[in-house]
Amino acid sequence: MRIAMWSGPRNLSTAMMYSFAARGDCAVVDEPFYAAYLRLTGLNHPMRAEIMASQPQDPAKVAKALLGPVPGDKPHFYQKHMTQHMIPGIPRDWMAEVANVFLIRHPARVIASFGAKWDGIGLDDIGFVQQTALYDHARALGQKPVVIDSGDIRRDPEAMLTRLCAAIGLDFIPSMLHWPRGGHPDDGVWAAHWYGAVHGSTGFDPAEGDLPVLEGKAAEILEQALPHYEQLAALKL
């Protein structure tokens, strides 16, 4: 099975990648279109040069690899994708050959977390508009994509991962609940900048507290992103 997990930034996406890697039967890849996205947009993200050097920059080659031999000859292939990377010029036809899952998080939490790491945050940076568009694309392919909320996973990891695995036709394995501290060999090179908290973890963090209160530009972005989150939240497991 090939699983494409679609998330925006500052979600539970890296922890979910570690969870599936901990199964033992699942190869993983971390944001394979990142370098192609930076080349096409010219954005000056942290560690841009290192990212560009670490991955193929041709999106067609990336898409071909996602459907090619699974690394390590594993039976399953978990692909962690950022929705904001799927700009014009990044192919989507390969999505017909994978199980598409959409990982959502309340945009107030995303904006507060991402804004602490990246100045000048905008709606396009957090991936909510792209996420609903990709969900609609998967539906147009004749699929029934799965939606799961990171807040629900935090509240009850075993129950939600069991439901997720059942929804995509995969057996739940208890080892998915824990992973070694310190990261994973398949982390993207950008992990040094973004993954500090998850590198200190050995499992899913507990449920979060109240939603952060946003002001100014952040509150405006929240107002724009919220309908996209709510559209998918109505469909979640």
Outline the biggest β-sheet.
5 strands, parallel
The rounded Rg comes to 17 Å
Oligomer: single chain
Distance between the termini: 20 Å
Which fold name fills CATH's third level, the topology? Rossmann fold
Give the full name of the CATH homologous superfamily: P-loop containing nucleotide triphosphate hydrolases
Q: Helix and strand succession?
A: EHEHHHEEHHHEHHHHH
Low-confidence stretches: none
CATH class placement = Alpha Beta
Which second-level CATH architecture applies?
3-Layer(aba) Sandwich
Pfam families: Sulfotransfer_5
Protein name: HAD family hydrolase
GO molecular function, one term: hydrolase activity
InterPro entries: Class-IV_PLP-Dep_Aminotrnsfr, P-loop_NTPase
